[in-house]
Design goal:
Strand content: 15-25%
CATH architecture: 3-Layer(aba) Sandwich
Structural class: alpha/beta
Radius of gyration: 16 Å
CATH class: Alpha Beta
Strand order of the largest sheet: 3-2-1-4-5-7-6
Shape: globular
Distance between the termini: 53 Å
Helix content: 25-40%
CATH topology: Rossmann fold
Number of helices: 6
Order of helices and strands: HHEHEEHEHEHEE
Length: 193
């Protein structure tokens, strides 16, 4: 019996194009559809390991790119990283000190899944709320935010909270999302400070 990854066309495409994971194509699609990262932007990626969203962000902008994750992120040319917890209240100040102006915050972070759907969904929403708090602390007015979440009973609260901080908020299920997954992304543009 072969690995599930051997049959995954998106995984193989990512590997062939030099990306660290299939998730790269999720940000590529979000960018194509919503234009969240501009050429001059400084970008922070929360929950960045293994680094595929960092690779995409580096291609999309000439600004500074910073990845934050609990796990170490193998080096990528032109990318700064912090091994730490983005929910730590000291982390936004550290990130701003490294970047100065922050134009975009993206997060593809997800909790380690237990297999218990409602429990996992609640943990994912809590992680999304932490990412939103971080973004609202560091973003300049007019900045953009992208966060992964999961559909379920707790999702509308996260969506509503995001709408209180951004002029434009939409949701998106990417083509690279696995069939049967409840994963979706919140695309929030034009931060209201």
């Amino acid at each position: 019996m072969g690995s599930q990854w051997g049959r995954d066309k998106v995984h193989l495409k990512a590997k062939n194009e030099g990306y660290r994971s299939r998730a790269a194509f999720k940000l590529v699609e979000i960018q194509r559809r919503f234009d969240v990262i501009r050429p001059s932007d400084n970008v922070i990626d929360l929950g960045a390991a293994p680094g595929s969203w960092l690779q995409v962000a580096r291609k999309l902008c000439d600004g500074k790119v910073l990845g934050i994750d609990l796990s170490p992120i193998p080096p990528i040319d032109g990318i700064m990283t912090i091994e730490g917890d983005f929910s730590d209240t000291r982390m936004p100040a550290q990130a701003k000190a490294m970047l100065g102006v922050v134009n975009v915050v993206v997060s593809d972070a997800a909790p380690k899944l237990s297999g218990q759907r409602s429990y996992d969904q609640a943990r994912a929403i809590a992680l999304g709320k932490e990412a939103l708090r971080f973004a609202c602390t560091v973003l300049k007015p007019g900045g953009n935010f992208v966060v992964k979440s999961f559909q379920g009973t707790d999702f509308p609260a996260l969506l509503d909270e995001t709408k209180r901080h951004f002029y434009s908020v939409k949701t998106c299920v990417t083509q690279a999302t696995r069939r049967g997954s409840t994963e979706l992304y919140i695309i929030a543009k034009n931060f209201v400070a």
